[in-house]
Amino acid sequence: METLSNGILTIQVSSHGAELCSLQCGGREYLWQADPAFWARHSPVLFPIVGRVWNDTYRVGTDEYHLSQHGFARDSDFTLLALTDAEVRYRLGDTEASRQRYPYAFELEIGYRLEGRAVRVMWQVHNPSSSAVLDFQIGAHPAFYYPDFEPEAQERGYFRFDAEGVLVRSCIGEKGCLDTERKEKLELEEGGWLPLSQQLFGRDALVLEQGQVHEVTLCDRRRKPYLTLAYEAPVVGLWSPPGKNAPFVCIEPWYGRCDSVGYEGAYADKEWMQHLQPGETFQAS
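Predicted structure:
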């Protein structure tokens, strides 16, 4: 575990999964502390898939491979690349074992940098192959404590989005995959507000596609801003464990998404797939 502090923020990052495990400001912990009674993770990075592939199976050429939800990077040990007072970076590369589940050469770097009152999360995916395209997805899954959680209260505060009017929610269906037959409208209050409640995530994550939202602010019940997550990713998932009355909520920017129900096409043709030509590098933060 590496600890970074700039006098305002203090973070801790584990080499296992290159996972951010603590985010403190003013003596307050903002990042969920992985109580297994609710969810035993803090802020895993999702790679090389986001969500589930149908029946945990996908196809590359004539071959079938198997991956469980969100891929294997979150359960892999990364190598520490660089460490300064303000930044830490880790690397994960393909191995013989990884190619049994994911038949691509890759170099994944994950970094965290303190910038005043902000933490910049940095992703870099490089295709080291001289001939083959690298197909992948990548996403974030940070969990944040509700600002003023009360187990008996229905209200959980608010999201404030950089959007107005109506958002379109894609819905999770069978086996954790997307129900393409069902879309739902989320009516925002004036100013881009969405009330949070115990029931909001009763049918799993809210998935917002097509770049509808690029900034999500978590606010308390008095609408006071608590933290903001800004990103450029085209998809965001918003989630708290259904039926558990959990004291946290996840804000998850994704370059990818789960399969649609029944999908049996090629891995490379999945929606929101990222493609890297030989020698190319993808970067996002």
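Summary: Residues 48 and 253 are 14 Å apart (CA to CA).
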